[in-house]
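Fold these two proteins, one after the other.
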Amino acid sequence: MTADLVITGGTVVDGTGAAPYAADVAVTGGRITAIGTGLTGRRTLDATGHVVAPGFIDIHTHYDAQVFWDPALTPSCFHGVTTVVAGNCGFSIAPTRPEHHDVIARTLENVEDMDVATLAAGIPWDFVDFGEYLDSVERRGVGLNYTAYIGHTALRLYVMGMDAYERAADEAEITRMSEVLRAALRAGAAGFATSFAPTHRGIDGKPVPSRLADRAEIDALLAVVREERRGIVEFTPGEQLGVPDLYDIQPGVGVPFTYTALMTTPAGSHNRLVALNRAGWEKGAQVWPQVSPRPLTFSFSLVEPFTLNSNPAFGELMAGGVAERRSAYADPEFRKRARAAWEKEGAFLVPRWGTYLVDEAPANPDLVGRHLDAIAAERGGDPFDVLLDLALQEPDLGLRMRCILANDDVDALLGILTEEHCTLGLSDAGAHVGQLCDAPQATDFLGKWVRERSLMPIETAVRKLTGVQADLLGLTDRGYLRPDCWADIVVFDPATVAPGPVRRVRDFPADGERLTADQPTGIRHVIVNGTPIQVDGAREDEAGLPGQVVRVPVRG
């Protein structure tokens, strides 16, 4: 039988972890119909010398808004990703009410570095409930397969209005939230996502609404997930609900949990989390920490210093503008309070000044590319003082710094990337677009870690990027190369695959700026639901938008 498409001459790595083998892959009607030798089709793609694998699944993105103005979902589409999960950390844009559109935009501005003007110009807001949101995406079309969590912050705003930013929910509100969550899951949401992270501050620097939820609210919402048996639950733990709590709660809920993120730190906290995860799994708790192969690196300006805003002194400035920040930065008392907060036991995200590098300094261009601690030593000052002094020399506080928050300990990272019950996540694609671009996570992992460091066999690496993720979500027909599965396929060269450069562009609505990585190496062909979107390393102009809105089913 002649297929619509045959990929010939490649080495199949099927997502199960099984050993690679030589075979052709035939596709008809958007699905895989045969894997074998001597297959024929109306169109043929050569894969000689390349790996033929399931398309990569990125479980941690924030494409909730970008999907409307960039349905190709760049730059993920360039890196072999064929399915994305949005709505992470509880920051979906549905359910919503018209009076809260600006609140959601301003929340996303502070927690995910999304431009309010871009959001206003790019989101159609032709939906209210979560099912209508998925319908809206589906009507417009999408280049990759797309699904999303219903987010806790959006859910609270929808039910409680602005009180969601102020207090715990009452019994009636919890009941209503449970009803809305149930409807979203039945409409096909990927699951439920929430955050308790101290870094997540929304409008005017206030804690995002999910951080005000009490245990009664959390338990009620998780009970709905247990009853519906759909998708997974994604957490960003914090003070109200910590990582150890997840291992106690998950067995009673049934669906897997995942959390953001297990990263290496100088304090060695990752060792405790690895031990906790191993012990939890031994007791039957299915909790999957998300790990990343890339150092967590931010490029930020002192106008909106995301990495510093978890410090209460900086957090108080989020309600103001440049004038308020300028006044505070010049105030010795402000500097004293900020230092005191970092000196407290258990302080979160204490800066490592040795990782700070000057990215942009219009008033001091000779400093670009230099480390802050070296500049401070040269000037005989303290790095924090020098940082603020340099910012004050810019008329608009336009000093841009680059810093590493975590995950730069290579030896420790080698260990957590090979942990059996950890999953690759935290690409954050679609978020922090002016500060980082970790969408190339898959190509970085395959290049830097699998090829260059021989961290694991190629079949194990591909399984981490595909089958493991599909199983977590409860998808039975994606993440694998086998007959009847949707033909989401990536063909890559294991000898050259790499993420390529990151560059800054202005291509978003309202002249929005972002970082992108659209020039990877080694990605030859990408097929979504049987339609090639990239052939021989170039975009297929005639591909259209072959992605599907994936509505996550009830678990078997």
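Now the second one:
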Amino acid sequence: MGTEGENLRVIAGRYRLESTLGRGGMGIVWRATDQLLGRQVAVKELVLDPSLSAEESRRQRDRTLREARAVAQLSHPHIIVVHDVVEHDERPYIVMELVDGGSLAERVNAGGPVDAREAARIGIALLGALRRAHDAGVLHRDLKPANVLMEAGTDRVVLTDFGVARVAGATTLTESGSFVGSPEYTAPERMAGLRTGPKSDLWSLGALLCAVVSGESPFRRDSLGGILHAVVVDEIRPPVQAGPILPVVRGLLERDPERRLDAAEAERLLRAYRETGRTPQVSAGHTPARGDGPGSSASRAREPGDPPGAQPQDTPETLPNPAPFGLLRGLIHGLPARESGQPVRQPTRGALVAAALVAAMAGAGVSAAALLMRDGGGDDGGGTPSSSAPRTPGSPSAGTSSPSPTGTAHSNTSGPSAAATPGASRSGAATAPTVPSGYRLANDPRGFALAVPEGFTRRPQGERVFYLSPGETFRLGIRIAAPEKGGPLAVMRRAHAGGPSAQPGYRDGRVTSTRHDGRPAALWEFTRDGFTAREGPRHTYDLCWEQGGQLYDVSVSAPVGKVSEAKEYFDVAVDTFVWTRSPRKGR
């Protein structure tokens, strides 16, 4: 919560911002007073991407205002009331009713899961809200417990935060291809970057119903890669508590949107349960197709090899495991034939799964190469995917990569980055990192190893070792030194302060405190001019952390037009970096 007197500015000559109610990736929500009408309101200040040009910022601002005005036309007792949409100092604001009460997520966190009857009530309200929005051509795209308010006194269910909503026929806030939403509640077709519709919101509702009766989404894992794998591939095991409304949950969590339960039938089933107290039956013609083989809709007993958290024999039916073949096939459709002219072999199930996950990770802004490290690329085999049961936090996860606050993907407890470092309990040499396709493992004589792209060559330069692409378009640098006063954050701040004198045309520099493998770290990003006119402007990512009495610094520099490719190289370098032995001096 903010404090009284925080900011206290007036926007649009009418709304006095008084204190913050919450912050998120899309902006800040303020408690405010409408000075014209003398009433309390909530004002959402939308934050625009600061890296956009003036023209791009204007277009994004126009889209935001246009879509917010469309949402303002929605009138339903379970949809937040939007009073006004204004612009102030070239920034959009959405003025909404102030709902006195916390979110559904806060309710579950504070009071525990709700029973199936209450979940059905909440589901009915949200289905009504979604049907109204969908009829108007508006998709919510971020339905989750945190975006559902529970009004104090009345217990009214209010769907809010249409901040990433999409209006049918409009260019969306995410036209650049970046992913928005919460992965644990996101439909597989959206993960795959395919065309989405109202059925995608209904998948999210299915995940929400599971979460409110059990305390967590059925797709919760200890890493982003694990979540994506669970959504696209793993067996879907609804919680035992969802048993009374299982036909609804099972129908909404159907991976193929064409077979997914529609809103009208889902609402009918939930109302039938509320009225009779008995588990309802899906009407003829609405029953989703049942899967066959591993992961089919057959009750599955917990087996000795199942990880902690797997459900016992009385678990409700598991949902079909494989993502629809058409969905997966679409993800790899159009892949070019090999340059050698040899025919492309038919993709295996493992390759299809990998393709789905790569598409999902790319949509979420995570390095595809880092994901492939998780499953060895998925080129061969077609082994059974890992269990969908939530893993115990901190337990080994077969090298599952997880996102760090820097946006890089680094391994969990059993992955390469955690292996046999100076401070690790394991003795002997470090476990070699898994190298993604297109990379090679560089065992550097200075005492470290990491994956670098094929064709990169090593060039020591003072205290830093560089791995350079042909023509030096990309420059991957590694420095190992003694710890410095103030730690990684102070090191990077000093470098940032000296940027203008050390780097020609230094600009857009920023230093962010973060963590790497559980240790304090700092990320420094900046843009500079080339040292020659031919070189042109370049952008740099630089991560610094301390480990085992050493200071490690990994950076990537590239032309500003190749930042996405450079970020992948950076992600993989950081993810696979391991200390191997005491460095050999003079190398």
